[in-house]
Amino acid sequence: MTATAKASRAAVVRQAAALCLTYPDEGFHERLPLLEAAVRDPALCAFLAYARSEDPGELAAHYVRTFDFRNRHSLYLSWWSDGDTRRRGMSLVGFKETYRAHGLEFTGEELPDFLPAVLEFSALAGPELLLEHRPGIELLRMSLTEAGTPYARVLDAVCATLPGPSPKDRAQAQRMARTGPPREEVGLEPFGRTQLPLLTGGAGVAGVADVVGMTDAAGATGVPLATGPTGTTAEPGDY
After folding, report:
1. What is the pTM of this model?
2. Which phi and psi (to 5°) does residue 34 adopt?
3. DSSP letter, residue 182
4. Residue closest to 233 by CA, chosen among 26, 86, 7, 48
5. In the chain, which end has fewer C-beta atoms inside a 10 angstrom radius, N or C?
6. CA distance 117 to 22
7. How confident is the model over 107-122, as a mean pLDDT?
């Protein structure tokens, strides 16, 4: 696989994962066929099969049980690096500055470190923020795996798009936090678009596959992964 094809496939996985990690409202279920047509990653396919088979009300309840009441399953990346300290405010500013450096503004109701928003940004601009916060993402993956939730498969897919192996345990993830993750030499250049569903909350915004005509490595071409805003109704937990 060429570097360009690999980067394109990773971008599709990240955009799809962004949608999978938002609250599974009616819009998520409407997009399921699009996601199933575009995604070829085995871990994401396993999650989509689970989401398809589950009663919508139970899927929503499972999401709330998994993410809304447990800091150790936090989807807010600065919590993993800063916890509930004053440093966290500066970290949140850093996320916004990174978005602005790529011509984007974060205007959603969620905090700018909300993982689905970061994934959507990374689908277009490359893995800069994912690499910077990889230790927290890996710790979240481990926590979800230990909890036995199918949402762990979404994190498996995300981490598989990043360079180098995932840490084997929490101690190794903590060492990664101190030394920094490996850097990816080849990524996607910024596309100069000012509209991303999770970053702007604007109506009628297309997803990454629709915006750039992206083709995943398995041959799903130009499938719009999101045809409208992908905001979530989930509230921040007890952070």
Report:
1. 0.73
2. -65, -40
3. P
4. 26
5. N
6. 9
7. 90
